[in-house]
Amino acid sequence: NWPLRTWFTAEGVPGELAAAYPWNRRSAPVSLAENIDGMPEDDDLNYPLLTVELLRRHGRGFTTADVARLWLDELPAGRTFTAERVAYRNLLSGIEPPETARYRNPFREWIGAAIRADVHGWTNPGDPAAAAAQAHREATLTHTANGVYGAMFVAAVIAAAARTDEVHGCLRAGLSVVPPRSRLAGAVAFGIESARAHRDFETVADTLHAAYGHYHWVHVLPNAALLAAALTHADGDFSGSICRAVSGGWDTDSNGATAGSVAGLLAGHPARLPERWTAPLKNRLATSVAGFDGIGFDTLAELTRAVAHGPAGREPRREARRT
Prior knowledge:
Blueprint (H helix, E strand, L loop, with lengths): L14 H6 L7 H4 L11 H16 L5 H11 L7 H11 L6 H4 L9 H4 L2 H5 L5 H12 L5 H17 L5 H10 L6 H15 L3 H12 L7 H14 L4 H10 L4 H16 L7 H4 L18 H13 L14
Helix pairs in contact: 3-4, 3-18, 9-10, 10-11, 10-16, 12-13, 12-14, 13-14, 14-15, 14-16, 15-16
């Protein structure tokens, strides 16, 4: 299965390779081509569910404090990691946003906020600025600077993808909402340029690793560069975007999911998505968020559509800053 075309499989993998690079023990029984039976539980997938619930409760005028209260009510602490776990701990210690993102948080420019940004794009179709504003308010609970810009970028790209079938304009829309001199904007531009410069995506990936390999593999910058490169190189194709994003390494599940989120919208209709990707999921999602376990993707789509077309809610309040 190389170049990557479909789900990972353990079948046919040489024994010495499997011994050197073992599958994640928790994921392997439910996440390989030979055993997928519905969408397995994954900590990253808890956040879109929480964001839908956030919008149901508070509308698009939610505040960062609303996000914090929802997390304390509904998000299992044991399913938080890196910046999200630090922010959760800070909340329990009585620290309020935005200090939750800053206090003793070495992960605040990692990819977590970008992972959580999809629903902000889905619920603001054709309005990248509004999507980015929502993503900013949610991201500042846990992240700062480029960590927040990554969320804004992803939300804006997805919002733009809801109203076009051309990925390159979506990436430009994403860049339009982040500071142009930021390291995040530079990483995205580098990814796009690298994809345009090389026909072979392995060369693109090598170029990105040479430039950003000194960062932690969950930092937002290398992953943003890889996401932009994958979408550009695949020209928005669904399978091509996912497989390039995953084969490039770093935070593979997150990048593959975001690439699929963008490319799925560009496809325009679920029927246009290859059955090899959708059939094994059996319209069923496992999650540790109460009330959502076992829910169908069709039901989630209806819930998302409802909050997108529902009342905007109150205007965002000016949040009190700790002094």
